[in-house]
Structure formats: structure tokens, C-alpha cells
Amino acid sequence: MYWWSIFVVVRFCQETIPCQPGFSSDNFVFTVHRERLQRGKILGRVDFDICTDQNRFLFICDDNRFKVEIDGTIKVKHDIKLHHGRINFSIHGWHSVGKKITSRVTVEYQRPHHTGHELNDQTESQNIQMFPHPSSGLKRYNRQWVGHVFDIPENQRAPFPKELGPMESLKSKNSTLHYSITGPGADLPPVGLFIINRDSGLLLVTEPLDREKQSKYLLTVHAAFINGTSAEDPMIVIVFVVDENDNNPEFISNTFIGNVNEGSQPGTSVMTVTATDKDDPTTDNGMFKFSVLSQTPPVPHPQMFTIDQDTGTIRVISAGLDRENVSEYTLIIKVADMKGTGLSNTATASITVLDQNDNAPQFNPTNVKNAVDFEVVRLIVTDNDERHTPTWNAKYRIVKGNDGGNFGITAEPDSNDGIVKTIKGLDFEAKQQYILLITVENEVPFSTPSSTSTATLTVTVEDVNEAPVFSPPTLSVPVKEDVPLNTFIATYQAKDPDIEMKYYIGNDPAGWLNVDKESGIITVKQAMNRESPFVKNDKYTSLIYAYDNATGTGTLVLLLEDVNDNGPVVDVVGDVHFCNQKPPPQEFSVVDPDFVGNAGPFRAELLHEARRNWAVSMNDTENKIILSMATQLPPAEYQIIVRAYDNGNNYQDTTLKVVVCDCTGDKIHCPKAGNPAIVWLAVLGSLCAVFALLNKYIEDSDPMAPPYDSLLVFHHEGDSLNQWGTRFKKLADTYGGEDE
């Protein structure tokens, strides 16, 4: 079987003119009137000349969605959609000496003009742009030397060599020719992969090809007369190795390590895994998808995590990550080619849940019955061998009666006594008595036949009043923060095999909850608020007690879901300072205690008189308001009320104290004068003292003079301190003398 395509070379006669080998343009532009291009559509033709009588050429396109015929016609190989209105790619041709020449091709979408007729493929094809070569004139064509392109599948089976096709020159009909081949794969490494029959020109491949080693071979075929002179120009032969899905995609690591904070919200990124595939990435053989096969442990939900099938990013998909319950998750992840249906591989993703301070410290009551590492008894043995040697050191084993692994026994180094301790807590309600069979040997075997010493130990479990045990120890319940009073939250009960119990609220820091003493039903007592300081990471934690002469404790965690119940505020600390001449705008952050979905984007407006002299707008990118001075203002203090709205139209007003100073631009300079109120108080105090003395003098000298109180009317609104002084001097001159 032959894998080849013939590219007919045309020789032509024309006038001798200066010729520049290559494409007639550095960039060919083809205009189409549809965004979707169907397979087989002709875009147009490019013109190419190498300054010989050859007019059929071998072209390669670097975009596998297109192909270039030997006459320069460009066709669509696969259905395409022009997402951004254009596609750019390169095409390559070869000079007769094997030099590669490149040009760019641009395919542009242009909306058609409406003429009352529907545009179809036939009418559109009438507008194909053709690019003629600058040389023109009548040409006479004769078929001559032939060029080839071969598509050979990789991994072919024996027998070898396999025939690709004849490279015969038409001149061989009249003369004896000898053929040879050069290039990588022929006379260059890998040498001998391709050979050619010296007499017939038959091209052969000698062994299986591997696309992952080399995907393309560029060979040159030579035809010569028997005297050694060239019969034809060298001919380019290109062999493309067709990909086979013979490689599994592989993760770059067998284990990926990541971590995530407990309480993380759905959508939180954990890590990104990466894989590779040696097959052709432009085909389904090399296109792979990711998926999660399993999660261990499958709690509190079997799908706590998901993976982006294209990027490999692992994210949290469910709420409820709690390090105190599960500190580590193991995911088995899969990568498969053929877009997820072909060859595959797996890896492990280990995710550590990082601790957050979401649990209050508690005292843990203990008792003998449930104690672990409680010493039950000491077994005493005697051994006449030398003390503290392997022949004396005892080795104890419990050989019977310890099926649950509740007990362990060790040798006390100094005395050699066997110390029996509890490894697990004992439960009187489950089992009241254990009979243990214990053997003792030395660390080394006996030198003479001896029987193994045994002991039978009977352990009787004493009953004690156990504290009730909540199931589960920590109960997490999702609930909206604005649920009405008396809303049912959960039924949280404890188990106690001894007697019945009563339920109480143990620790409810915000006083939001109520528990029914008999049933353990928990309801809402006061309005809840996710933004409360008692809520950490959207979790409100309380303790529930069950009492039956002993107290059991359960932890109730409310996973509060946010509602839009807060308006945004402008975050400003202290006074705001502006110059009154050419001041730049100033930005201030907008803060909303609600969660992201119930906060921004924000908008803002000014209230009352501030609208005349000030303007406000939003910087949506950074959730900031922009305050600017609309008109030049005299230096003074101004109260500006800004009303900020969230995306649910909840609003809150913020009053800004703006100090306008006599300065320019952003070089704010406000004189640090003394406090005006203190200055005026000092002045008034001095004046009052003077007035008192003056009034006394006037009364003594002129009983008909106006009283002291009436003298205060000399002040008029708007008077400066200098005007006060002038009036006061006149008053003193009127009632006093030169010395007074």
C-alpha cells in the first residue's frame, strides 16, 4: 500500500524578468461572511514562485484546521468558529535548494451587507480573494518532476521494509537515471530509516515509526544521469507520522499535597494538579480530562471536593470542613485522554484541614470505669537466673480473653513484675467480666526443656454512673441568620444506659438558643446575627448539657447563612483634609459586614447641602467611594453626609468631618492655631474682670451712669477682636480719665 499525494510540477515558458523566490505577499488576507466555517470550504489561493519552471509546490500549514493544496488553494479541514473575528496562521513553502519560505495568512469575518438575498456558500465562494504573482503573461505547461507528502501511521507491524511510493522522473523514459535520498532519516541520524531503490526510485521505510520521537521527516530526493549530472532539481518529500493513542496520560507526581482551612466556603481553591500526555496534543489522543474517583473519609459529605476537568484545580464544593472531626482527606484522582474516555492514570491528592480557633476549651471529667492506662494488677514472678540479663528479663503475653484488645501487659524493668493495664475504656453495660490467660517467658529461649508458666486473671468491671454521651459529640446545623423566633433548629439528644436525663443550655454566649429540658429540642430564643462578634468563620458554637447526676456535654455548631441585613458604611478614621484650590479627589473604603453576595457592588450619594459643593462617585474595582470638591470653598470645617447602598439597596449614612484649608493641590497645609474656643474664653474672662472694675468706678463717680450689664451691648455680631478693643477704649475714655 502507498501513502502518498502527488503534487504535479508545471514547467512554463515566460519572458526573462527579475525574479524573487517566495510568496507574492508577506501576509494574505481572506474575508469571510460567516463566523462558522464548514469543512471543505475554500478560502482562496496564495501565489508562490521559486524562479524555476515549477508551478506546483509542497506547502505546510502550522494550523491543523487548514490545509494548502499544491496549487496554493487554502481549504478548511475541520469545522471552525471565529470566536474573535479572525484567525492567524503561517504557511511554509520550500525553495528548490531546500530553504523554507514562510508567509502569514489572516482569515477575517466581515458582516455581510443585507441585499435582500440570503448568503450561502455558493454566493460567498464567488468572492474568494486570489493573489496573483507579480509576474504575468502566457505560460506553456509540461508535466515533469513529481513532489510527495506521505502520512504514515506510527507503530506499524512487520514485515519491513514497506513501500511508500515511486519517485520516478519522466526523464527516465528516455534515459537511465539513478535515484538517491538525503536528509534526517536517510543519510543523517536516524540513518537508514528511509531508503530508495537506486534504479526504480521506489521509496521505502525500513522500521516502525514513533511519533513521540519524531513527528515529521523532511527528505530530499535526487535524480541523476549515469554520468553523475543532475537530471532534475532536488525534490522535497515530507513524511508525516500519524499519531496513535499509544501513551497514557501521566500525572507529574504520584501524590499531590495540599491544605485548606477548616470552615472554607464552597469554591475555595485547594491546589492544582498537573498531567502530561506524549501523544499529539492537537488530537483527542493527547487531550485529557480530570475527575475525582473517590474521597476518604466520605464525611460529612461524600463529595467535599471537586476538580476542574480542564485545569486540574481542586476546589471545595460542600460546606462542613471541620478539623476536629476530619483532619485529612485522601482523594483518588483520574486523568484520561480522548477527552476523558480513553487511556487513563490515577494519582492521590492528600488534603490537610488546617485548624482554626473554633472550639472553646473544656474540662474533661474522668472516672475509674472508663479510664485508659488504668493499672489493674501486678503479677509477680521469680527467676533464679542472673538479674537484668536476657535470661532473666520477663516477656509477658495475653494469649486468651483479650479479643477486644482492652488490656495490655508490660514488664516493669526493675522488678520484672507484669503490669496489666487497660488500653481501652471498659463498659459495664457491654461486658461485666473478663478472664485473661497470661503467659511469661524470657527474652531468649530456654536452654533446657521447660514448661511455660501461665496465670489466669479474672477482671470484674464495676458499674458507675456514667455521664450521658451526646451523639454526635459535635452537631453542625446550617441555618439562616434571620430565622424567626421559636424556629426549630435541631433535636440534640444524649444516650445514657443508666437513667433518664434532663437537658440544659451550658454555654450560649449570645443568648440566642433555648432547649427543651425533656426532649432536647433546640429553638431560637433571640434574633441571631451572622455579623455578631460571637460568630467566627460563620459558626456560632454553644454547649448543651445532659444531666443525670453526672453531666454530659455536646457541642452545637450553627452554620449561619448570610442574609442582606446590613448597609455599607464609609470607612474613615478622623478628619478629612482638602485644599480649597485644585484639590485632587480622595478615596475611602466602603465596608459591608454582610457576605460577598449581599454586599457590593456599591453606590453612593450625598445628602442635603453637601450636594452643592461636593461630588461623590464609586471605584467599583476596589469598592471605594471617590469624594471631590465641586466648587472652591473658603477654609472652614464642613459636615458631609454620605449615603452608601449595597446591591440590595440597603443603606447607611456616614458623616464625614471635612476640614478645608487654604492651600493648593495635594500639598495640604492647615495652620496649627490655638483652640478658638479657649482663646475667646480667656478674652471674655479678662473683659469681665475689667468690666467689673469699670462698673464699680462708674457707680462711684456717676450714680446716673448706665449699669455694668448694659455696657455689654457694645458688642455687635461679626465684630473682630480689634473692633472690640476700639469700642472698649472709647467707653473707657468716656467714663475714665487719662490715668484710668
UniProtKB/TrEMBL annotation:
The keyword Metal-binding applies. One of its GO terms (molecular function) is calcium ion binding. GO terms for cellular component: adherens junction; catenin complex; cytoplasm. InterPro entries: Cadherin (IPR039808), Cadherin-like_dom (IPR002126), Cadherin-like_sf (IPR015919), Cadherin_CS (IPR020894), Cadherin_pro_dom (IPR014868). It comes from the Eukaryota. SMART domains: CA, Cadherin_pro. It is found in: Cell membrane. Residues 168-251, 252-363, 376-470, 471-570 form the Cadherin domain. The keyword Translocase does not apply. Its main location: membrane. GO terms for biological process: adherens junction organization; calcium-dependent cell-cell adhesion via plasma membrane cell adhesion molecules; cell migration involved in gastrulation; cell morphogenesis; cell-cell adhesion mediated by cadherin; cell-cell junction assembly; convergent extension involved in gastrulation; ectoderm development. Keywords: Calcium, Cell adhesion, Cell membrane, Glycoprotein, Membrane, Metal-binding, Repeat, Signal. CDD domains: Cadherin_repeat (cd11304). This is B-cadherin-like. It comes from Erpetoichthys calabaricus.
